[in-house]
């Protein structure tokens, strides 16, 4: 037990606060006091300003600086926003149990992906989602959209789009699961690296870390570490058209991944398996397989498209 509140840093969006409350409730159940501190990130500012260009770590950097500067004790991140690498003075001490990692179609009329009309405007700012959409339905019109989940839903309801593609996890954590028209199987759209998972970051030497390590789910940790290793080896970030999904059970880990042509013309996919202790090497092996089959061209195309 610690003798002061654990200061938890988070973004101020409704989803970020809901995710942070999951962590805060777990700590309270263990008898710890918590204090939630909202921190505005450059990614939040870009969304408000309507900018489509987000720097690497846009939703993370300010939280990490507050952590290193001892303004907070714990940063709660969406794992898919967290760049590979990171400040060596910090540590990812826990990955709580993962929510559903898949993507969902939310449409105005309740149609799933196959039922959307030709030329339907599908709101997404993700190159990965855009590429997978065009791979399945080249007649659709993936259309940029910014803002948090509630903002996107308002734009959908206002008629600016016929449908959205958003993470199932975000909708469920906000109590909006009823808006889902179709949950997309990974055969159709492999999720983003880390999607649906939370990453809890602390200072590497913080004695409070022991209070948080108990929130770690080993299967989630193994899956996310493998996915992040894949992304790092591919040489991409969260806005690259790469995807990976790990599944751990009974000490074994399977990892499937893809690199998709940004225009949705082609996808290169593969799957590897091994022990959970091999998570990092499995991610590397999957990436090397895709790169050897031509995915390097997609890496270059993604970098050129992002400027």
Low-confidence region ranges: 49-57
Radius of gyration: 19 Å
- End-to-end separation in angstroms reads 49 Å
The percent of residues in helical segments reads: 25-40%
Strands in their spatial order, largest beta sheet: 2-1-3-10-4
- Total count of strands: 13
Mean pLDDT across the residues is 90
Q: Give the percentage of residues in beta strands.
A: 15-25%
Main beta-sheet strand count, sense and barrel state: 5 strands, mixed
* Helix-strand category: alpha/beta
The helix/strand series, from N terminus to C terminus, equals: EHEHHEEEEHEHEHEEHHEEEH
Silhouette: globular
Helix tally equals 9
Would you mind describing this structure in some detail?
By secondary structure, the protein is of the alpha/beta class. The chain has 9 helices and 13 strands. β12 (252-260) and β13 (267-275) form a beta hairpin.
Name some characteristics of this structure.
307 residues, alpha/beta, 5-stranded mixed sheet
Quick take:
The protein has 307 residues and is of the alpha/beta class. It is built from nine helices and 13 strands. The longest helix is centred in the C-terminal third of the chain and has 28 residues.
List the helices and strands and how they pair.
Elements: E1 6-10, H1 14-29, E2 34-38, H2 42-49, H3 61-68, E3 74-78, E4 90-94, E5 103-107, E6 121-123, H4 127-136, E7 141-143, H5 149-157, E8 163-167, H6 168-173, E9 182-183, E10 198-203, H7 209-213, H8 218-234, E11 242-249, E12 252-260, E13 267-275, H9 279-306
Parallel strand pairs: 1-2, 1-3, 6-7, 6-8
Antiparallel strand pairs: 3-10, 4-10, 5-8, 5-9, 11-12, 12-13
Helix pairs in contact: 8-9
């Amino acid at each position: 037990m610690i003798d002061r509140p654990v200061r938890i840093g988070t973004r101020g969006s409704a989803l970020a606060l809901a995710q942070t409350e999951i962590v805060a409730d777990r700590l309270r159940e263990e008898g710890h006091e918590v204090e939630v501190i909202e921190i505005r990130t450059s990614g939040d500012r870009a969304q408000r300003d309507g900018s489509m260009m987000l720097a690497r770590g846009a939703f993370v950097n300010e939280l990490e600086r507050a952590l290193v500067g001892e303004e907070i004790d714990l940063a709660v991140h969406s794992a898919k926003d967290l760049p590979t690498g990171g400040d060596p003075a910090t540590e990812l001490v826990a990955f709580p149990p993962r929510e559903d990692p898949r993507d969902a179609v939310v449409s105005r009329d309740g149609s799933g992906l196959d039922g959307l009309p030709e030329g339907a405007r599908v709101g997404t700012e993700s190159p990965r989602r855009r590429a997978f959409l065009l791979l399945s339905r080249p007649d659709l019109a993936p259309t940029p959209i910014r803002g948090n989940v509630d903002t996107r839903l308002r734009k959908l309801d206002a008629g600016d789009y016929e449908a959205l593609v958003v993470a199932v996890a975000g909708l469920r954590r906000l109590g909006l699961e009823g808006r889902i028209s179709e949950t997309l199987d990974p055969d159709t759209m492999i999720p983003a690296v880390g999607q649906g998972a939370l990453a809890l970051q602390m200072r590497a030497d913080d004695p409070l870390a022991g209070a948080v390590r108990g929130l770690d789910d080993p299967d989630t940790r193994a899956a996310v570490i493998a996915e992040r290793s894949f992304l790092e080896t591919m040489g991409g970030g969260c806005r690259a058209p790469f995807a990976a999904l790990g599944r751990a059970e009974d000490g074994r880990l399977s990892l499937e991944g893809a690199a998709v042509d940004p225009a949705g013309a082609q996808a290169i996919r593969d799957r590897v398996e091994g022990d959970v202790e091999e998570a990092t090497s499995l991610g590397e092996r999957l990436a090397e397989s895709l790169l050897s089959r031509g995915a390097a061209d997609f890496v270059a195309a993604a970098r050129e498209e992002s400027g």
